[in-house]
Amino acid sequence: MGYTELIVKAELISSPDRGSGFRSFSPQILVNEADLEASGILAPGSRAEFRLLLSGSSEQVTAFAQFLKENLGDEERLFSLQDEQPLGGNALASALSYLKLTSLIALLLSALTIFLSLKRFSQSQHLRCALLLSLGMTQRSMVVLYLMQLVLAWAVLALMGSFTGIALEHMVSRWLDELLPQSLPAPALWRYFTGAGVGLALLVLLGLPPILGLSKVSVSALFRDEDIKTERRGLALQVMCALLLLVVLLSFLEAPMAAFILLAFLLLGGAVLGTIAQFCLKHLATPLAKRLLLGRLLVMRLRQQRQWHRLQSAVAILLLTLLSVVWVSRTDLLKDWQAQIPDDTPNYFVVNIQPWQTEGLQSFLDDANVNAVFFPMVRGRITTLNGAPIHAQMTPEQLEHNTLNRELNLSWSNQAPAHNIMTEGEWWQGETSGPLISVEEEMAQILAEAR
After folding, report:
1. In the chain, domain spans
2. Tell me, what's the pLDDT at 381?
3. pLDDT tens-digit profile of 243-300?
4. SS3 assignment for the chain
5. What's phi and psi for 157, nearest 5 deg?
6. Which end of the chain is less crowded, N or C, counting CB atoms within 10 A of the terminal residue's CB?
């Protein structure tokens, strides 16, 4: 290498920071800085790039990237996953959005399920509570008793869920280690317990209102059926639960208006859907009452428990709606990801083919049933626009575009390539002469703005 001889000690299997594009096909070696200076290959006129790799939390990287964008020099450029590898960046962004959506919907499903289960449980316990109160149990003791049951159930399920989540996380990490060039970073320890913490908060905020209602059950409930009334403290706790859900929605959606709209949809949509479901049940039960032996009892039961059926129907409809959203989002995500790269997209590119190599390479590809087309290619820079230096016609923002600061791959052909689809305009005819050129859309927009 230059004026020095080096010994290859190892083979570089993967280098994730190389980026994408044709430049990633060039040979790469890692050498000591002292050996680089001794080789003498860096001299005036040499093409050299110096890179600084930065890592940290997403907040730190985002803040520092914004600082760099405002202070970059003309010869400096900021690389990121989204800019350097848009396909991979978009796929990761879509996958992250889907994971956030599934986590959010799982939380909402849990909240609705807890609310419905506790409502049903409290209705089945009011006779028992009335009996315990008649035997001398205080209201405070009853609240503590049921609250301890909730906490005990939460502790058992939280341990089971946390250990299951940790085991699945390790299984997925080991599976991904075989596919990724390096292991995934270990998550923070506190993240393993966020689900259990949010579950406890939801359980307490949703469980205390019916428990407080049970503690106020009258002893006369042993002799007549009475509805459990929700106290003001219970209503306040339900409002606190709604606020907690709003905070969680804000953390997931990062958009206050979207969080408010989603929460309002759940509350108002549940009320409307529950009313519609109750109306449908009533009109479906009426003709059945004339045909079934116990039809009148069915209608009477629906009338007596109309509030419970309205609530149960609303929760069931919302649960099915949220599950449908997850399924549709999953299908759309996979379709969008698969549509980014067509089935016949090339996986390999052969460059720097010399004229005397073309015939042999073409025979090799034909024997392998590979339909490949050869194109001439030269390297060049855009130096003038309309006869004047291009840099003098550009704004500082336009000069930051990388296509104007590097060599471009230039090719030519008399006929339009079969793999290029014309969406607008028409290709020039074979006998056409003149300064005709085809450029990518983004670059054409920059040049048009300069004119």
Report:
1. 16-85, 87-340, 357-450
2. 82
3. 766 676 666 665 566 656 766 776 677 777 777 777 777 777 677 666 666 666 666 7
4. CCCCCCCCCCCCCCCHHHCCCHHHHCCCCCCCHHHHHHHCCCCCCCCCCCCCCCCCCHHHHHHHHHHHHHHCCCCCCCCCHHHHCHHHHHHHHHHHHHHHHHHHHHHHHHHHHHHHHHHHHHHHHHHHHHHHHHCCCCHHHHHHHHHHHHHHHHHHHHHHHHHHHHHHHHHHHHHHHCCCCCCCCCCCHHHHHHHHHHHHHHHHHHHHHHHHHHHCCCHHHHCCCCCCCCCHHHHHHHHHHHHHHHHHHHHHHCCHHHHHHHHHHHHHHHHHHHHHHHHHHHHHHHHHHHHCCCHHHHHHHHHHCHHHHHHHHHHHHHHHHHHHHHHHHHHHHHHHHHHHCCCCCCCCCCCCCCHHHHHHHHHHHHHCCCCCCCCCCEEECCCEECCEECHHHCCHHHHCCHHHCCCEEECCCCCCCCCCCCCCCCCCCCCCCCCCCCCCHHHHHHHHHHC
5. -70, -35
6. C
